Amino acid sequence: MASEIVVGIDFGTTYSGVSWAVNGGTKTIRLINDWPNPTSTNANSDKVPTKISYQDGKPYNWGYAVDFKEESWIKLLLDPKNKIGRTAEAVLTSNKLLGSLNKSAEEVAADYLRLVWEYTKSDIQKVRGDNWASIYTLRAVLTVPAIWSPIAKEKTLKIARMAGLPDTLSLVTEPEAAALAVLKEKNEEDESLKIGDCFVVCDAGGGTVDLISYKICGLDPLQIEECAVGDGGLCGSVYLDQAFERYIKTIVGEDAYNSLRDRDKKKMLLEFELSVKRCYSGDDKPYSVDLRGVEDNPKEGIDDDTITLKPSVLQTVFDHVIGQIMRLVEKQIDEVQERGNRAKAILLVGGFGTNRYMHRRLKEAYRRSQIQVLQNNGAWSSICRGATMWGLENSPNSTFTKKTVKARLARYSYGLSYAVRFDESKGHVLQDRRRFPDGVWMATNQMGWLIQKGDRIEDGKVMQEQLATPVQVGFLSTGTRPFSQELYYCADENPPPRKEISVKPLCTVDYGIDCSKLWHERGFKDPTTGEKWRHAVFDLLVVLDSATLHFVVFYRGKPVAYTEAKYKEEF
C-alpha cells in the first residue's frame, strides 16, 4: 500500500488553492473545493481567499469567513525586492494592521498557512479515514513566483515550517507548476502536441505575472524543456484593483473617499472583483458598483450609492495593467524566436489569466502571427494541481521513470569571488592587488561563474567548483575551524569577470572542518615572515532546481556539510 501523500499548495496573493494525491496507484489528484464558507455564496470554489482576521491578538477567522476588516496582500510584503507592491493602498493598509497587531508579515502568513494546512489534513481524513496518519506520511510542495528573490523564497520556507508543514517540503515556481498541469492534461486529452512545439505560458495571478516558455521534446511520457529565459513583473490583478480605486478617488474626491467606512469601500472592491473584473471583455455595456455613503454626482455617474462605470473608463483601467502584461508576452515570444524556435501558442493560466479582455487583446495582437491564445479549463487551480504533480515526480518515492521538465534556463548568473595571480595585461586593477601568505601577488575580487544567465541546466545537473584557502593550523590545534563562502548573482546578459556594481551578494555558506584533519594538508612557509600555513582544498557542489539552490561542501571526497544558504536581506 502507498505510504505517502503529496500536497500541492498555491499560496496566492488574493486566493490560495490546495490539491493532493496518494503517491501510488492511479495518483488521482483531489482538488479541495469545499472551503469553509458561512454564506455558502461561493460554495465549491477551487480556491479560498488569502485573508485572515484576528481577535485579541489571535487568529479569529480566515478565508471566506473573514469580514471586511482583514489582513490581505500579506504575500506581497514577503519580498523586500518588491518596492512597487509596498506602495499599493491595500498593502499600506495591511502594514498598518500588522503594526496594530504587533506581528510581522511572516507571522501572519504563517498563521494563515497553518489554518489552510489544518483544513487540508481534515480533508485527507474525510477521504482516507480516521487512521490515515498511521498509514501515510505527508510531503508538501509550496509554490512561489518565479520572479521572487531568493530571500523571499527562503522566507516562504521559514513560514511553512512555522505553520507546521512537514520537513519533507519543497518549493516550485508557479509558472512551472502551471505549465506542468496544463501541458500534461493537454497531452492526455488530445493529440495536438508535437515534438518541437513551443508554448509561452503566461501565469497571471493576483500579485505577479510570470512568463515561461517550453519546448516539447518527448510525448510518451511528456517531456519539456525551457526554450526562453523566464521573465515577469508586478502587474497582477491587484494592480487592476489599485488602478480602479484610484479612478474612484478622482470622481468622488480623495477627502470624501477617505471619509467613507473601510467596510463599504471593501464591499465595493469585492463587487468590482466578482461582477466587473471577471466578466469584462471590452464590450460597450456599462457596469456598476455600489458604494454606500457616496454623494450623488450625475455628471460622474453616481446616483443613490451606485457608481455607473463608462465603457471608456473601464477600458482605460484595464489597459493600464493588461498593456504591461502584453509587453512581457511580446518580449518572451521574441526571446523564443531569438533562440531559433517559434511559439505555437500562448497558454493563459492563473486567476487573472481567465480574464476575457486579456484573452481578447492577446488574440487580436497575434492573429496575423497565427499564434493561438488558449484559456484552459481549470486555469485558476492549475498551479496547485501542478505542484502536486511536481511533488509526485520529484519525491524519493516516485514511480515515474522520467521527470516532465527535462531542462531549465538560468534566470541569473551565479558565481564565486576568488583570487588569481596578478597580471595587469589581463585587466587586473591595482586596488585588487594583495600579497598572499605564499609570497605571490594576487588579484582579488575576480569572478568565477558556475552558472551563466541563459545556460541550459539539465534536471539534476551538479555544478562543481574547487576552492583553495590558506589556513594556519598547528599540531596541537583542537576543535573545528570555521569557513565561510559567499556566493554572488548577476542579472546582466554577460556577467563581468570582476566583482563590479552589477554583481550582488546572494548568500553565504558556512561550514567547519576539524583542525586535526587540516593539519595533514600540504604546508608552506611565508617567505617574508616564516609563518607556517597549509592549503585547505574544498569542493563546492551547487544544484539549481525549479525554485531553490542547494549546496554541498566536500572535503577530501567526503561531504562535510549540506547547508542551507543564509540569504542576504536585500537581494
Automatic annotation (TrEMBL):
Keywords: ATP-binding, Nucleotide-binding. Pfam families: HSP70 (PF00012). GO terms for molecular function: ATP binding; ATP-dependent protein folding chaperone. InterPro entries: ATPase_NBD, Hsp_70_fam. It comes from the Eukaryota. Coiled coil: none annotated. The keyword Nucleotide-binding applies. The keyword Membrane does not apply. SUPFAM superfamilies: Actin-like ATPase domain (SSF53067). This is Actin-like ATPase domain-containing protein. It comes from Massariosphaeria phaeospora. The lineage of its organism: Eukaryota, Fungi, Dikarya, Ascomycota, Pezizomycotina.
